[in-house]
Amino acid sequence: MTLRFEEFYDWTKSELNLQLDGYKQKQLQRRITTIMKKSGANDLASYAEKIMADAQVKNDFLDYITINVTEFFRNKDIFTEFEHILTQELPQKFPNLKIWSAACSTGAEAYSVAIALKKKNLEKKSKIIGTDIDLTILQKAREGIYRDADIKNVDQTDLQRFFKAEEPFYHLNKDIKELVNFKQHDLILGKYENDFQVIICRNVTIYFNDEIKDNLYRKMSDALVPGGIFFIGATETIYNPAKYGLRKVGSFLYQKIE
Ligand SMILES: C[S@@+](CC[C@H](N)C(=O)[O-])C[C@H]1O[C@@H](n2cnc3c(N)ncnc32)[C@H](O)[C@@H]1O
């Protein structure tokens, strides 16, 4: 028996709780075909069987369809603009900051926030949550071990202060790691927490179709307190922010209307 992609997605939804029809299709189908062939399967039905029978094949599948590229202080200039709002403006408005790094991959983004807050002695007034759909990547995030490419935007002084170098790795210090709580969360199927002063959701909606994106922006806005900040990726735009109760306050920064 051969499966069409739509049927394979019904199967991933019921067996793996993974809603793949919400992703942009061309790119996703190309990736699924590549990883399927790597496993030795020639069609989606036998690939589904392999995924169920072999935990390694299942992990490889989940890892490959989620693209995990990230780095500390990604898009440095844009991050600096965000950092100013985070450490200068928001603390004047809110006594405590609840911050969510959504689709955080290996945690570089959540830890960049932790470093920025620590440098301004704001870490005790802050709670940072990092979430991703991918359990393997979350384990890496908790370990906090990085390579050159991940830390290229970290200043030398911060590198010495917050990391321990053990060539070719950089181990993030415990006092920064402790500031972030990582947990699994699916942006399409998961329930959203609320009362956030800051939500960062960068470089994941590019993989979602318009309907999923529309839902996501609505749910993100609901999860923010009035005056809270929503930080998106450098290739992303919210075309009609007012529709979601948001207004643009920076290059890739939106504020929930009060
Ligand atoms: C390219 S990384 C972005 C990492 C980080 N936000 C950044 O901009 O550097 C995209 C992440 O989105 C995650 N992801 C993909 N689909 C997801 C979903 N439905 N729910 C939550 N995370 C998802 C992937 O596992 C991956 O770690």
Which terms would index this structure?
10 helices; 2 domains; Rossmann fold; seven-stranded mixed sheet; globular; 20% strand; binds S-adenosylmethionine; three-stranded antiparallel sheet; alpha/beta; 258 residues
What do we call the CATH homologous superfamily of the largest domain?
A: Vaccinia Virus protein VP39
Compute the number of structural domains.
2
Structural class: alpha/beta
Largest sheet: 7 strands, mixed
Strand content: 15-25%
Shape summary? globular
Got a strand count? Answer: 10
Q: Which kinds of small molecule does this entry bind, naming each only once?
A: S-adenosylmethionine
- Helices and strands, in order, run as HHHHHEHEHEHEEHEEHEEE
In the CATH hierarchy, the architecture of the largest domain is: 3-Layer(aba) Sandwich
The low-pLDDT segments are none
Distance between the termini: 55 Å
Report Rg. Answer: 19 Å
Write down the CATH topology of the largest domain. Answer: Rossmann fold
Protein name: Protein-glutamate O-methyltransferase CheR
Keywords: Methyltransferase, S-adenosyl-L-methionine, Transferase
Pfam family, one: CheR
Domain CheR-type methyltransferase: 1-258
